[in-house]
Amino acid sequence: MKAKILSMLRETDGYISGQQLCEEFHVSRTAVWKVIEQLKTEGYKIEAVRNRGYHLEETPDVMSKAEIESLISTKWAGCGVLYFPEIDSTNTYAKRLGDGGADHGTLVVSDKQTAGKGRRGRAWESPSGSSIYMSILLRPEITPNQAPMLTLVMAQSVAQAIRKITGEEAMIKWPNDIVLNKKKICGMLTEMSTEIAWINYVVIGVGINVNTESFPEELNKKATSLYLESGRKIQRSQLIAESMRQFEHYYELFIETGNLSAMQEDYNRLLVNRDRDVRIMEPGNEYNGHAIGINETGELLVCKEDGQIAEIYAGEVSVRGIYGYV
User: Cis (ω within 30 of 0) for the bond into 175?
Assistant: First the structure.
């Protein structure tokens, strides 16, 4: 009821009467009043006027189950939300849900992680109050060798969501880092449970630096936040909801085609590496090339110095700009 009342307050330009809310949810005026008071204690500015009702004046950067659910408008992506003020890792929890039979599209969100994970087992700094830490559980009917493409689907979705919510020109550093003004604002980690020929589930974790005001000195040159780049605070729950909306759209295109062909042009348009000289760093083998874009299965096409076109697979390979991170 709390999430639905929030949705109704948002969708109403003027006032919504207490009686209307009572009739909508078949509860007493006291029950409605208690929900309104709870929302006020969480920071929502709600005006109550006798004989007119309630009006939502201002929404703060609230992270809660009700706030996120009140903004989700998808058919399945993120429709089941589990929110935690603090958790070890949203990916770890989502994998436990996967093992336990949770539904496709279940979303795990936390305000803080105590054991966040990055690529190759690296720790991911996850303080509270400023960033997004979320993981979505998927049960795609695809083969295991198709699963890595889902990471690119999420990268495209988050980049588009950032652009939609903030107006900032977020770009993708292949395969799945989101960058703004040549600095990283978002990383992703995809994990899955598979058998030989099929997938039990896939979990995609996303960490976005949203309202972070500063970074340690060693990260300043390559990391940033939406707040530092835009100069304004962003409502994290809105960005979560828009990311789910975008992801549902691109995921369904991917499932329909079995590859990235339907979103290849969109992805390449946002690819910061495209038409740039890059450094390919494979274990025991490094070389320079010119990035062309991705193919329909997500490999980065790179023209080598001898003119040959190489297909670079994500994994242990790192791709960087000749003179820096991008």
Answer: yes
